[in-house]
UniProtKB/TrEMBL annotation:
Claim: Transcription is one of the keywords in the record: yes
PANTHER family, per database record: HTH-TYPE TRANSCRIPTIONAL REGULATOR GALS (PTHR30146:SF109), LACI-RELATED TRANSCRIPTIONAL REPRESSOR (PTHR30146)
Gene Ontology molecular function: any one: DNA-binding transcription factor activity
Parts forming coiled coils: none
Upper taxonomic lineage: Bacteria, Pseudomonadati, Pseudomonadota, Alphaproteobacteria, Hyphomicrobiales
Record organism: Ferirhizobium litorale
Name of protein: Substrate-binding domain-containing protein
Residue ranges of domain HTH lacI-type in the record: 2-56
Keyword annotations of the record: DNA-binding, Transcription, Transcription regulation
Length: 325
């Protein structure tokens, strides 16, 4: 049976350091923690439970904006399935699309001494409020940063540009972008930037985006002012749930989708194919992204693998909510 002394010898550290690294109890550098965990994995070391106490199952922490959004639920299910195979539990926290709540949510995850973290942040470039010392971390849906170089993404900018170009090729010239607040989601910002580039490349004038809170009553969305001011022939919503709200708002104004206004969304959630007509949307690989993020985190935490960036392909799914004019 492999002993802790053998793990310490292989990692090139003291017995006390090896113990702290494996228990996540005490001050040990990230580099040394990875070395000790890799040595333990290579030697097949499993710590014995303390006398009279049950052994503690390792866990990872996952931060998502909202568990009620099917996008994040799909990713979370894949993460949990991957971790189940690896013998890890999953602890979940929500930011509710609020940057001010992220630091507290991450700290709550760290209190469970996780092997590592999978984070979907409002703004990965603004992380000063996050704890300075963190275990191996993978960003999910956020692009990699200097602090967090490990990330699993889809190209939101390119997808929005492609979706907007499709509408332009169908004859639309006045296209409105409706979104959750950009401060709460870098995905929304990237999608708007892709929309804007396509509009400008085509010699058109981009409309001022309509921003609303992500957490709110989409069924109460009021488009009357923006419709009377701009009379858009097409509307792009920054996610599918918001696209459903846009369709409802248009119908309350007595307008038909797509006869009067075309509507497109992002994410590709299943309910979008059950409405009539089916929603035109960018289908994001949420389940694949979740599984990839979990596997990458395990590789970094257990095998001291270097952080990497994986870009997973999206798919433009044409539905009945868009027409040519």
């Amino acid at each position: 049976m492999t002993t802790l002394q053998q793990v310490a010898a292989r990692a090139g550290c003291s017995l006390a350091t090896a113990s702290r690294a494996l228990s996540l109890n005490g001050s040990v550098s990230d580099g040394m923690t990875r070395r000790v965990r890799r040595a333990a994995a290579e030697l097949g070391y499993r710590p014995a439970p303390a006398t009279g106490k049950a052994s503690r199952r390792p866990v990872i922490g996952v931060l998502i904006p909202s568990i009620t959004n099917p996008v994040f639920s799909s990713s979370l299910a894949s993460i949990e399935n991957r971790m189940l195979v690896a013998g890890h539990g999953v602890v979940i926290a929500q930011s509710h699309y609020d940057p001010a709540r992220e630091a507290d949510a991450v700290q709550a995850l760290l209190n469970d001494r996780p092997t590592g973290l999978v984070l979907t942040l409002c703004d990965p470039l603004n992380t000063m409020s996050l704890p300075s010392s963190m275990p191996p971390t993978v960003l999910l849906n956020n692009r990699p940063t200097e602090r967090f170089p490990a990330a699993v993404t889809a190209d939101n900018f390119k997808a929005a540009r492609e979706l907007t170009m499709m509408l332009i090729e169908l004859g639309h010239r006045t296209i409105l972008f409706v979104s959750g607040t950009f401060a709460a989601s870098d995905r929304a910002r990237l999608r708007h930037a892709g929309y804007r580039q396509a509009i400008e490349m085509s010699g058109l004038v981009p409309l001022e985006p309509m921003q609303i809170p992500f957490v709110g009553a989409y069924d109460q969305l009021d488009l009357s002012t923006v419709l009377s001011r701009h009379a858009p022939t097409a509307i792009i919503a920054s996610n599918d749930l918001l696209a459903f709200g846009v369709i409802g708002a248009l119908r309350r104004e007595g307008l038909c989708v797509p006869c009067d206004v075309s509507v497109a969304g992002f994410d590709g959630i299943a309910i979008g194919q059950m409405i009539d007509p089916p929603l035109t949307t960018i289908e994001m690989p949420d389940a694949s992204m979740g599984a990839t993020a979990a596997s990458l985190l395990l590789d970094m935490a257990e095998n001291a693998a270097p952080p990497r960036h994986f870009d997973i392909a999206y798919f433009l799914r044409r539905g009945g909510t868009v027409r040519a004019i």
